[in-house]
């Protein structure tokens, strides 16, 4: 495993629609392993392959709940319901946060690292993380859809009571 460089906006790979994965092999396994290690090293809760410069439909998510690390290849949101508004940041947009409207509950379908199809249902923060990462696969950044955008350090100082 290796920690990869996280590309920053305005890198053009972040604006591309990522390519569907068709080969489930050791290269994909290495990418998934590296993405997880990179996400944990950066204290993130999700990472999409375009964020490490690879235009493929691959994401990893770990919001610190009982689900642990979730890897999904070729993810697609097939159901969405409810609405939540909450703060988001992005490892590819280091200095900004924003408030983003997302579905409260989603159902996704995708494949595991070996190409086996599976479905997954997520709510609350986990649903938010998945929607954020799937947006990355479609060239959408949270700043494109946020209802407000603010300086991340100012919000952090405010949250710390300063």
What features would you describe in this structure?
The protein is an alpha+beta fold. It has one domain: Peptide deformylase (Peptide Deformylase, Alpha-Beta Complex). 26% of the residues lie in helices and 33% in strands. The strands form two sheets. Strands 1-2-3-6-7 form a five-stranded antiparallel sheet, with helices on both faces. Strands 4-5-8 form a three-stranded antiparallel sheet. The protein is globular, with a radius of gyration of 15 Å. The chain starts with 25 loop residues before the first helix and ends with a helix.
Shape: globular
Largest sheet: 5 strands, antiparallel
Number of helices: 4
Low-confidence stretches: 157-162
Oligomer: single chain
How many distinct domains? 1
Overall mean pLDDT score?
Answer: 95
| Termini gap | 39 Å
**CATH homologous superfamily (4th level) name:** Peptide deformylase
Could you tell me the radius of gyration in angstroms? Answer: 15 Å
What is the helix content? 25-40%
CATH topology: Peptide Deformylase
Give the second-level CATH assignment, the architecture. Answer: Alpha-Beta Complex
Order of helices and strands: HEEEEEEEHHEH
